[in-house]
Design a protein that fits this description.
The structure holds two protein chains of two kinds.
Chain A: H1 5-21
Chain B: H1 2-12, H2 18-30, H3 38-53, E1 57-70, E2 74-80, E3 84-86, E4 88-90, E5 102-109, H4 112-117, H5 119-122, E6 126-129, H6 136-152, E7 157-161, E8 187-190, H7 192-203, E9 209-214, E10 217-231, E11 236-246, H8 256-275, E12 282-289, H9 297-306, E13 313-318, E14 326-332, H10 335-345, E15 355-357, H11 366-370, E16 375-380, H12 385-388, H13 401-420
Parallel strand pairs in B: 5-6, 6-7, 7-8, 11-12, 11-13, 13-16, 14-15
Antiparallel strand pairs in B: 1-10, 2-3, 2-9, 4-8, 5-9, 10-12, 14-16
Helix pairs in contact in B: 1-13, 2-8, 2-13, 8-13
Classes of the chains: A mainly alpha, B alpha/beta.
C-alpha cells in the first residue's frame, strides 16, 4: 500500500526529529 | 552534543559574559547612535573593525540612505496656574518652534475621539494627550499620529504622555509621522506624571498655559550602512540563516537595551559557533541593521537589494525586544516549520527557554516574513523593558550579563541547528 501524503510527512517529520535530537 | 556545548560555552565557559562586556565597551565608547549621526557612523566603523578582528568572513558594509534629524535645545515651562518645568523629549522628525517658543493655553484629552469631539476648542492651543497605557502596540499610535491629529484641528503643538506603564518623571522619545496635507506642528513627549497632573488641573477647570521651545532640525537623508558578517556554509553556502539586531538607537541614554543587547547577542552567536570550531551546512549571516528607529529604513533597503535571492533565505531572526531572562522564541511560519521549531526548542531545556510563541516578525525582518520566509524573534522577560525604552535610562545599568549569556545561548542553538539541518524549513 503506498504511503499517503500524511504518512510521508509523518515519516519525514520523524526523521527530522531524530536529526534534531542528534544535536542534544 | 552540540547544543549542550554551545550552552556550556555561552553560560559557564570562556565566553561567559562576553556579549555583555563587548556591549559595555561599545556603548561606553560610542554612546547613543541616532540615525544620520556621527555617532552611528563611528559605531558602524567600530563594528566593521571588531567583526574582522573576530575572524568572521565576508565582513562588509552595505550602503543605504537614512533620515537625519537632530534634537536641539528643548524645554517646556508651565506658566499658569503656576511655574513648573515640564520634562520633555522632542519626537523624531518634529519641526522646531520659533526661537521665542510657542506660548499657548493647553487642551487636555485622553483619546483621539475626545480630541475630535473638542475640535472647536483645540484651535490655537497646545494639545496634551493623557491617553492611558494599554500596551505598546495599541498606545504608540498617540506618539506616531498625535501631532497630525492635533494639527488637523488647528492646534499649535502637541505634548504626548510617554508610552510606558511606569515612570519616574522620565519622558520617552520616539519617531512620529507627519502627513503631507496636514500643517506640521512641533511635538514632544512629556512624562506620565506631568500628563496626569495637567489632566487633573484641567478637570478642575483650571486654565493651563505652557511655553514650549524646541530647536529640532531635519537635514537631507545621509548615507549609512547595514553591517554584515558571515560564517559561510560548508554544504549549501548560498542558503542563509539570518540573525540580526539593530545598531542605531535613540539619542538619549546609551541604546544598550534597544538594541545593543540584540545586536551583540547576534554577533555572539557567530563568535560561539566559530569558537567551537563549527561550520554549519548553510551560511550563518549576521546583519546589524541601520536606522531601525525611523521605521526599519536600513532593513527595507536590504530587502529590496536581496529579495531576488529570497528562495535561499531559510529563516530571518531578529532580537529587538530586550535581552533579559529568555523564555524562548516567537515564530511565524507554516505549521510544518513550527513543528520543527518546537523540536529544536527542546534543545534549550537545560536553560528552561523552550517556549515557542506566535508573531516572530520584528520591524527589520517583517519584509521577509510577509513574503513567507519563516521569522523568529527572541522572547524574554519584558516586564521592565518599556520602563527604559527610548529614555535616558537605556544604559548598560539595565543589562545583566548572566541573562545576556542565556539569550546568546538560545540565539546560537536555534540559528546553528537550523543552519546545519539537512533540509531548509518548509515554507
Amino acid at each position: 500500500k503506498p504511503l499517503s501524503q500524511d504518512d510521508c510527512y509523518q515519516h519525514a517529520f520523524e526523521e527530522i526529529k531524530r536529526e534534531i535530537a542528534g544535536y542534544s | 552534543n552540540i547544543a549542550k556545548a554551545i550552552i556550556n560555552l555561552a553560560v559557564y565557559g570562556n565566553a561567559q559574559n562576553r556579549s555583555y562586556e563587548r556591549l559595555a565597551r561599545f556603548v561606553d565608547t560610542v554612546g547613543p547612535r541616532l540615525s544620520g549621526s556621527k555617532n552611528l557612523e563611528m559605531a558602524i566603523k567600530y563594528m566593521f573593525s571588531v567583526l574582522q578582528e573576530d575572524g568572521l568572513e565576508n565582513v562588509q558594509l552595505e550602503p543605504v540612505k537614512v533620515p537625519h534629524w537632530e534634537r536641539g535645545e528643548e524645554s517646556a515651562m508651565m506658566l499658569a496656574p503656576r511655574n513648573h518645568s515640564i520634562a520633555i523629549l522632542g519626537l523624531g522628525s518634529s519641526i522646531a518652534t520659533p526661537p521665542e517658543g510657542i506660548t499657548a493655553e493647553v487642551l487636555v484629552v485622553t483619546s483621539f475621539d475626545e480630541l475630535h469631539k473638542k475640535a472647536q476648542d483645540a484651535k490655537g492651543k497646545i494639545v496634551v494627550y493623557n491617553q492611558p497605557f494599554v500596551n505598546y502596540e495599541e498606545t504608540v499610535k498617540y506618539r506616531l499620529q498625535g501631532a497630525v491629529e492635533a494639527g488637523k484641528v488647528g492646534a499649535v503643538a502637541s505634548l504626548i504622555r510617554s508610552i510606558t506603564s511606569f515612570s519616574i518623571n522620565s519622558p520617552h522619545t520616539g519617531w512620529q509621522q507627519y502627513q503631507s496635507n496636514v500643517p506640521k506642528i512641533p511635538t514632544a513627549c512629556i512624562s506620565v506624571e506631568d500628563a496626569e497632573m495637567m489632566a487633573r488641573m484641567s478637570s478642575r477647570g483650571t486654565r493651563i498655559v505652557v511655553t514650549l521651545k524646541m530647536g529640532a532640525r531635519t537635514y537631507p537623508d545621509t548615507v549609512s550602512f547595514n553591517t554584515v558578517a558571515e560564517i559561510v556554509g560548508s554544504k549549501y553556502p548560498e542558503q542563509v540563516v539570518l540573525v540580526s539586531g539593530h545598531l542605531d538607537s535613540w539619542d538619549v541614554g546609551q541604546g544598550a537595551m534597544d538594541d545593543g543587547g540584540g545586536a551583540f547577542i547576534s554577533w555572539e552567536a557567530l563568535s560561539l559557533i566559530k569558537d567551537l570550531g563549527l561550520r554549519p551546512k548553510r551560511t550563518l549571516r549576521l546583519v546589524l541593521w541601520t536606522a531601525e528607529e525611523p521605521g526599519g529604513v536600513g532593513a527595507e533597503q536590504y530587502y529590496q537589494l536581496h529579495k531576488g535571492k529570497i528562495s535561499n533565505f531559510d529563516i530571518v531572526m531578529e532580537s529587538d525586544s530586550g535581552t533579559f531572562m529568555p523564555m524562548g522564541l516567537a515564530f511565524t511560519g507554516s505549521d510544518k516549520a513550527r513543528a520543527i521549531l518546537t523540536e529544536i526548542m527542546q534543545l534549550l531545556q537545560p536553560i528552561n527557554a523552550t517556549n515557542l510563541y506566535e508573531n516572530g516578525g520584528e520591524t527589520d525582518t517583517v519584509y521577509w516574513v510577509r513574503d513567507g520566509i519563516p521569522g523568529a524573534s527572541l522572547r524574554d522577560d519584558i516586564s521592565k523593558y518599556f520602563w527604559f525604552h527610548h529614555t535616558q535610562g537605556d544604559t548598560m545599568t539595565v543589562q545583566d550579563p548572566s541573562q545576556m549569556n542565556l539569550c546568546a545561548a538560545v540565539w546560537t542553538v536555534v540559528s546553528y541547528v537550523i543552519a546545519d539541518m539537512e533540509e531548509m524549513l518548509p515554507r
